[in-house]
């Protein structure tokens, strides 16, 4: 049992058009959590320069992610919405975590291996240290819960490892500074400074796959635009992409077990289930035995009606950049107040003079 006050943190990178995977795997969950939790949602612009240093228009990408947050229904007055680079604590704490984390931990990260590809020596140091910055994003606010897609699971395990090592290595200093909180670590309760964060990865769309290849996740950086539904797509584009989505020749099964070995069918049923807030079993009880020629138009209609209000509101908000900038500034100021307290405590624990 942890004595930390529950707090939710999550972030999205401003690295391109948001897609259905980002929406179902993350943003829609952010909206649901704000009803019961204290939430901080961040446009993680420092992460955006790890894989690609120079971006054509980072400012408009940051505004676009913010517009998606607001259009989806996140309330920036009750919660905090801001862009990461405004709060210097993220980079400062990440540096300390670079000294807590081990190189071996970073080298094992699947996302680093995938993004660095064969030419690892030429990847930026930032790409290797990405999970350490992600741990800092979360722990700067001593967040207890992080809603993410399944692809971020490994990074969250690393966040937990960093918190555990920091709490252990500095346990006496934490006690001496009087800033500890009881933290459950395995069987033991210790006096720690950082919570052991719980990932929130649930539901039928934790890993939305590419519409062109059921073995690859839907991703902003896939060169094929037909592989994803962007939040900026209009109704015709959405319908066309679903029509062209890869499937197999068989009819849909009447139970989820029948989706085994049919990655593309499983993906489309999962998308339908997530958009309609039903289980896959429930969707298959309606569509089992029907062909994709019937299922795809129903899915396209559902996607257009579900996403239409969000994309319309995003367009409206993007026409008012000053409003978006004001939201980010206000959120940044409030985030900074929490971050400054954490950094004062951390500097005391590490032993810096301040
Ligand atoms: N395909 C997906 N299905 C479910 N959730 C997903 N997420 C990403 N892709 C899927 C979740 O969306 C949140 C924001 O992701 P991000 O933008 O910070 O980074 P990412 O995971 O690297 O997203 P992309 O779209 O795949 O970008 P690129 O192509 O640049 O790598 C996270 O919670 C993520 O889990």
Summarize the structure.
This protein has 354 residues and is mainly alpha-helical. 53% of the residues lie in helices and 8% in strands.
Please outline the helices and strands.
Blueprint: E1 8-12, H1 20-33, E2 39-43, H2 45-51, H3 58-72, E3 80-83, H4 89-100, H5 103-107, H6 110-116, H7 125-139, E4 145-147, H8 153-169, H9 171-177, E5 181-185, E6 188-192, E7 198-200, H10 235-244, H11 263-276, H12 280-287, H13 292-318, H14 321-350
Parallel strand pairs: 1-2, 2-3, 4-7
Antiparallel strand pairs: 5-6
Bound molecules: adenosine-5'-tetraphosphate (AQP).
Describe this structure in words.
This protein is mainly α. It has 14 helices and seven strands. A hairpin with a 2-residue loop joins β5 and β6. The longest helix has 30 residues, at about 320-350. The mean pLDDT is about 95. The structure holds adenosine-5'-tetraphosphate. Adenosine-5'-tetraphosphate binds near residues 13, 206 and 221.
* Bound ligands, each once: adenosine-5'-tetraphosphate
Strand residue percentage = 5-15%
Number of helices: 14
Radius of gyration: 21 Å
Q: How far apart, in Å, are the first and last alpha carbons?
A: 33 Å
Say how many strands there are: 7
Order of helices and strands: EHEHHEHHHHEHHEEEHHHHH
Properties at a glance:
binds adenosine-5'-tetraphosphate, single chain, two-stranded parallel sheet, 354 residues, mainly alpha, 3-stranded parallel sheet, globular
């Amino acid at each position: 049992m942890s004595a930390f006050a529950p707090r939710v943190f999550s972030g999205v990178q401003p690295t391109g058009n948001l897609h259905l995977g980002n929406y179902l795997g993350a943003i829609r969950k952010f909206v649901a959590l704000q009803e019961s939790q204290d939430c901080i949602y961040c446009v993680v612009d420092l992460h955006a320069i790890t894989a690609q240093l120079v971006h054509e228009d980072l400012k408009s990408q940051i505004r676009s992610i913010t517009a998606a947050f607001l259009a989806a229904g996140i309330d920036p007055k009750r919660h905090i919405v801001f862009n990461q680079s405004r709060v210097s604590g993220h980079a400062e704490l990440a540096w300390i975590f670079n000294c807590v984390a081990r190189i071996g931990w970073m080298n094992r990260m699947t996302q680093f291996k995938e993004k660095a590809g064969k030419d690892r020596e030429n990847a930026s140091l930032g790409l290797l240290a990405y999970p350490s910055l992600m741990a800092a994003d979360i722990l700067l606010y001593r967040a207890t819960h992080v809603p993410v897609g399944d692809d971020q699971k490994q990074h969250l395990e690393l966040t937990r490892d960093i918190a555990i090592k920091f709490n252990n290595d500095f346990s006496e200093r934490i006690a001496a500074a009087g800033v500890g909180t009881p933290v459950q670590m395995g069987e033991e309760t210790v006096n720690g400074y950082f919570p052991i964060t719980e990932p929130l990865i649930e539901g039928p769309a934790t890993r939305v796959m590419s519409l062109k290849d059921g073995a690859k996740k839907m991703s902003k950086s896939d060169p094929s635009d037909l592989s994803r539904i962007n939040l900026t797509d209009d109704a015709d584009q959405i319908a066309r992409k679903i029509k062209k989505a890869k499937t197999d020749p068989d009819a849909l099964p009447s139970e989820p077990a029948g989706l085994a070995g049919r990655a593309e069918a499983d993906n489309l049923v999962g998308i339908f289930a997530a958009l309609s807030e039903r289980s896959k079993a429930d969707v298959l009880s309606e569509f089992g035995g029907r062909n994709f020629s019937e299922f795809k138009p129903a899915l396209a209609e559902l996607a257009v009606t579900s996403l239409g209000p969000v994309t319309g509101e995003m367009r409206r908000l993007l026409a008012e950049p000053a409003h978006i900038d004001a939201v980010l500034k206000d959120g940044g100021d409030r985030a900074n107040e929490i971050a400054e307290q954490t950094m004062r405590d951390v500097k005391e624990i590490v032993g810096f003079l301040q």
